[in-house]
Amino acid sequence: MKHFLLAILFLGLINVGQAQITVTSATFPVAGDSLITATDNLPAGIDMMTGGGNQTWDFSNLQAPFSQSTVFRPASEGQDVASFPNANALTAFGPGEAYYDSNASTFEFLGYTGTDPAGLGIDLIAKFSPPVVERRSPMNFNDFNESSSNVVLPFAWEDLPPAITDSLDVPIQPDSIRLSITNERTDEVDAWGTATIPGGQSYEVLRLRRWEISNTSLEALVPLFGWQDISDLVGNFFGADTTLTYNFYSNIAKEEIAIVTADPMTEEVTRVEYKTDEVFTTNIKNLSATKADLYAYPNPAIEDVRFEFANLKNGQYNLKLYNILGIPVWEDTFYVAGSRTIEVDLSNFKKGTYLYSLSDMNGKTITTKRLMVLKP
User: Fold this and answer.
1) CATH numeric code, 291-373
2) Higher pLDDT residue, 319 or 314?
3) Which regions of the chain carry the CATH code 2.60.40.2550?
């Protein structure tokens, strides 16, 4: 009897050990990879509070109207590869490029090129010092890492658009200005278990809880006074920004199985980006990286419908719904910065075919599409 109990205990320990996976550099993205994900900006019923072992996370009810592909190319194909000699992969980064170093121990974000992140209209080459570590290998339960990185971007006063320089109330014209971005991260692998994504595929995963504080400031070199912080004179973009994400990694997939963004104060889940298996991508469209568009889902809809704004310039937009006779039955105005998701209650709508139309504040129609409403 004693030997039987010991055998049962031994088998139990083996099963526990198998559940606590180790994620290695074999899952790091490299040149030639295309990572396919989708994003739900209105997730419901997802709780990230519980850590520890043998957890179960059900993401199967997430919804998204399209998938997006992140394509990794050889760094040698980049226009600014000379500025990133350690890079071996790159991806598109808005109008510019993002450079990475994927090696045996880390997957590092080296920097990017393109338009400045503060919206000042300046083209730049931003190199992080030291590089931002996105993933580490091997990754195990209870791993803990703290890191910091910064980038300083100097440029001449004359490089700023006149709309910016004219709005700055400075008594003396600065010799030059610089944009400073500092990132501090705390990464803790605080849980392991099983995660299920839309389509029903389940993965054994490690959960990495990432707490990040990003501080952005704009400084001017003023004669006689040295470097002065002028962030308050430019706009609300500058200052400290705190983000909290939960990143789910498997030992067999390149993509994160899920990246859950939560409110850093309440930990309420606000956004989930998740892996989309190719077998299930037939029901959603692949998003163009540049085309402004609007998507309705589910379509046909019954009780409510989500509208996903994609790739829009920052500004106010008007959304209208028309019945089959062309009579407006619902409308509202929304501020959109790139992308946004809103939900519309259809409980008072009759069964039938409707049109939804998006226009900018100048009245220019961006798109008009069909929406089917069903009733049980």
Assistant:
1) 2.60.40.2550
2) 319
3) 291-373
